[in-house]
Amino acid sequence: MTQITRPDGRAQDALRPVRITRQYTRYAEGSVLIECGETKVICTASVEEKVPGFLRDSGQGWLTAEYGMLPRATHTRGDREAARGKQSGRTQEIQRLIGRSLRAVFDLEKFGPRTIQIDCDVIQADGGTRCASITGAFVAAHDAVSKLIADGKLEASPIRAHVAAVSVGLYQGQPVLDLDYVEDSACDTDMNVIMTSEGGFVEIQGTAEGAPFTRAQSNVLLDLADAGIRQLIDAQKRALGV
Amino acid sequence: MTQITRPDGRAQDALRPVRITRQYTRYAEGSVLIECGETKVICTASVEEKVPGFLRDSGQGWLTAEYGMLPRATHTRGDREAARGKQSGRTQEIQRLIGRSLRAVFDLEKFGPRTIQIDCDVIQADGGTRCASITGAFVAAHDAVSKLIADGKLEASPIRAHVAAVSVGLYQGQPVLDLDYVEDSACDTDMNVIMTSEGGFVEIQGTAEGAPFTRAQSNVLLDLADAGIRQLIDAQKRALGV
Amino acid sequence: MTQITRPDGRAQDALRPVRITRQYTRYAEGSVLIECGETKVICTASVEEKVPGFLRDSGQGWLTAEYGMLPRATHTRGDREAARGKQSGRTQEIQRLIGRSLRAVFDLEKFGPRTIQIDCDVIQADGGTRCASITGAFVAAHDAVSKLIADGKLEASPIRAHVAAVSVGLYQGQPVLDLDYVEDSACDTDMNVIMTSEGGFVEIQGTAEGAPFTRAQSNVLLDLADAGIRQLIDAQKRALGV
Amino acid sequence: MTQITRPDGRAQDALRPVRITRQYTRYAEGSVLIECGETKVICTASVEEKVPGFLRDSGQGWLTAEYGMLPRATHTRGDREAARGKQSGRTQEIQRLIGRSLRAVFDLEKFGPRTIQIDCDVIQADGGTRCASITGAFVAAHDAVSKLIADGKLEASPIRAHVAAVSVGLYQGQPVLDLDYVEDSACDTDMNVIMTSEGGFVEIQGTAEGAPFTRAQSNVLLDLADAGIRQLIDAQKRALGV
Amino acid sequence: MTQITRPDGRAQDALRPVRITRQYTRYAEGSVLIECGETKVICTASVEEKVPGFLRDSGQGWLTAEYGMLPRATHTRGDREAARGKQSGRTQEIQRLIGRSLRAVFDLEKFGPRTIQIDCDVIQADGGTRCASITGAFVAAHDAVSKLIADGKLEASPIRAHVAAVSVGLYQGQPVLDLDYVEDSACDTDMNVIMTSEGGFVEIQGTAEGAPFTRAQSNVLLDLADAGIRQLIDAQKRALGV
Amino acid sequence: MTQITRPDGRAQDALRPVRITRQYTRYAEGSVLIECGETKVICTASVEEKVPGFLRDSGQGWLTAEYGMLPRATHTRGDREAARGKQSGRTQEIQRLIGRSLRAVFDLEKFGPRTIQIDCDVIQADGGTRCASITGAFVAAHDAVSKLIADGKLEASPIRAHVAAVSVGLYQGQPVLDLDYVEDSACDTDMNVIMTSEGGFVEIQGTAEGAPFTRAQSNVLLDLADAGIRQLIDAQKRALGV
Fold it and tell me: Residue ranges of the Exoribonuclease phosphorolytic domain (chains A, B, C, D, E, F) (predicted)?
């Protein structure tokens, strides 16, 4: 890689400092504050002993997610979606992605007829909120599952692997890992990558904001993401003490 | 007063521990985390250089508030209002109250054609969220005003006095200050009292949940509230260093 | 009290003329037109032999209320809430208050698994619509209960006491009873007081529109309200012939 | 016609008693209570000195209408449309019809850049509410125009003719005029007819609820309607004193 | 009739060319493209083995309809109703009319506890879309019924007669059949007529856009419509091969 | 590749037959029916001589897209989004993708202060509707631009390259091109790939429905997509005669 200077001085392949605080709020079965640099998201996992209609009598469980952002999580205040009366397309896209990503590592048939409801609420946004949400939500869901096992409601964990997410992109023509808001606003290509601890891809979403990108660029970005996700999964493991 | 034992062992006239953290998030002109025992609310004050339509060309400023609760701020998960597509009556009632209370100590004619938008988002709820929101929002608004003065956009502060709020109620027949969730759910009478640092009432909202209450009881409750609010205003002053 | 001249020449402690017409419309189990001066509200009580979900199988009954205003009940036409697609915060606040106030004098456990649905629709508004709604709705609910007893569906009345409401306020610095629209728009402090025939408070909602108010002022206002509510309850009794 | 007995004993060609009360509420420029038997509708006409966007700068005026029904105007309580968050298809169909019917007798080019907003709110429904709304709304609109002329804002009336509406139908195989709710629910064919004082049709809406109807039946019904509308226009004229 | 020249050169009593294509899409039980000149509507009939709540346990079936228009079916693009979040009054009026018209020829008691859901989606609009929808929807419903019979789910057809619709109007003072968009925009009186193959009226909706119309004019228009509908029913029969 | 038998007998690297019909409807500036096997989408491009608020006074143009599906485009009827009152998350995600993909090949600075509004309406769905929408919408947008040039409103085309989309996936463990509904429902990994005629990626969206996928699998899928998109772009060129 050609050397560029990133706005916050990081190396191109460096994550922002990650901090994962468990039991952040007291009522949820799993409650995590994840901080990726200045991006801060509260992720809770709530267990409900019921499943949505389309799974009734299937014996199978479910996991779903909602996402929100405090109006002043951002540089300029955004509308409160509850006041406006609907969630934006962006919000719905993100919450569908979070749910899909976590379900990829859950064996829902072994979870019994219950639902894990993930809530990811961004209290400060500096880029990468959907990725931080996924990485944090996994830890919250893990805690919720551990509680079910500890309470004798579940025998074995339905979690097959860790899952985490990171963004990569081409900034000033160069591949960089874990873009902050300044980089994200100025990058040519932005890619969100979601992988499991077993190394497979759960989701790749790459978008050319400016010029189209090539296969070679895509592969360099995926290499960066792969390395970043390994570190994020390590951070999850340290937080969980596993 | 007859002596009763409160669920958390507090004296009847004792507030829960109050903690006010300024500059809690980084983008808002004023950003406060207020903790009243286990109740935790993020209060931000955003300055917008415009006023709503009904004040156009009046020269006067405005202050308004919105309120929300993370779905899992509570014992059992509540619906996300943004997903349901509307704010509940309770939410609207509270955000109207917050706005009215703060406007009571603001000289909006001296504020210029700008708006302070307050956002109070409850991240953990253990009773008294509307009162904590008002007490915390005052500090956030104060910071936003100080920033306008420091930036040379405002000459003098439009803030005439401090304002704070506390709940009082009759629990097991006895008057108590600053009810937590357990007390609030079981109390006979619940009163939210909002006062200024000059000692006047901005708002009294007393509701008999069970048996109606008498004038004498009302006066005892107002005495308790008065003493509690003085302490809350002291906490605001300590936090602000004034 | 210092003597002031009220816009309509009333004494400071005088109610507007109250007129309560029962059986105003023909289908509702209770149907009342209440006129407080120029404020006119149709209050109906409808009995439904079911309860909301949260009371299912509790054996207990329920009472709830909705409130509306014809678009041209006011000086200038307001939006029709049905056309706009949502009820305002003010509407929701008022209908919650009406329901709470009536439930305070109802022994819902003795009411059986049925619901009284109150509808208060303002056809002409000259201040005090929420208070007139409560005072009128009580009479409508009383008629609905009498009908249930007459029809042999209920043995004894679940109504424990009368309930009525009145506004008081500081107008030109002086305490006045039962504010009309002109006074309400110009007053410093506005207080809605709801009491039962046994003299206790069900709800006190006092708001400083301008300068904060003192305990002494609050007590003078509550005295005025107390006397006014006695007269309103007398009017209810005369209307009901009890 | 074969002789049948109508539920309320009326002759087949008899209207229900019509009563038109002007100045029913005090703020609207025109305010009418129209009673057709037990059907009672408050019709107000509000003048606003502006026109909708599609007429801006056209010099032309506008007239539009909204319609509502109090929840307990009917035998069993209906949903409040404001609470449900949308107007039903029936409501929208009726309010479009009211507006169209009144515009048919208004020369909007002579009305100047202002709008008459009609509101028809049914306080008691016993069939024929849309027809009563049109007949009453005409009187309210007439009063609003007279006020504009009296205030010197308008030189000449833009009203070209009276307009009124009535329902006719086939009940037990026989043509009847002005159906009440019982007849309306049981009739085979239901026709709403709207005519001007000059005798032309503004709108004919005939619907076969059961068996299709013939041209001959249609012509008998239109004869009945024609006679009924003449009487309704007489009632309008008597009410207006013209 | 006086001779006028219609914009597309048709005789006053001439329909536009009608083309009915069955099995237009592959999944619906009945799927028809109807083209009336440049007006093109896709009509599908879907069979669902359930009935709405108000018919539960009645043994009876149901038929209902929805209507939509692609945003660019018209000269200038209209809002997408799904994006705007509600259907217009016009849309609701039309879909209620379609459902009512088809139910008029269906013996729903003989249909069993199932629902035919009609969808009429206009892909190109040149006037007369509601009439084309009804005429086409009948064919789609007929196909759906034939499939039920072929599948052994229904013994005999619940369809009592054909139903079709056409518009007539006064254009340049003269009666014309089957108005296109240019004529419809400029006509004085517009009438939608819906008849069965047995010659009776199911619905007549006549509206004076300009001057009121007379009984004589109405009868001439109904004659025109009658002749047009016979031709449309012939077209239905040819398409169905019956 | 291992040989598998696809449900419709295609080779693994074979597209379904593509048919692009221009000028499918008559009013839109560009109107295309695209058929990819049994998937059929009407794509229109409407030109509006205005831009959204955030581009006002920028001199720049805009392109945006909306997407819908007729209720019975699918095997079982889906809700009509206009009737339900909101667009699903899936719909919003797709329409955002269509807009982003087309903007990637438009030089909006050279387009002047106007907007191309794309509408993609699926009339029959057999998998791959979002990809067919993008491929077809490009042709509609191209026609709209050509019309602007022909009308002298635009000097040069702002279109920099063709853009087309295709889905690829792992079906029964093997990579296949252009999945139909049966394959899409059963596949392990599903990838939507959007490329320009210059060979770069505009968007890659890969999702593991079952087991995570590897880099090697991803590269095989991208090869398949690349070849498929070249054929789709050829089809666009043939249709456009360029």
Answer: 15-144, 163-225
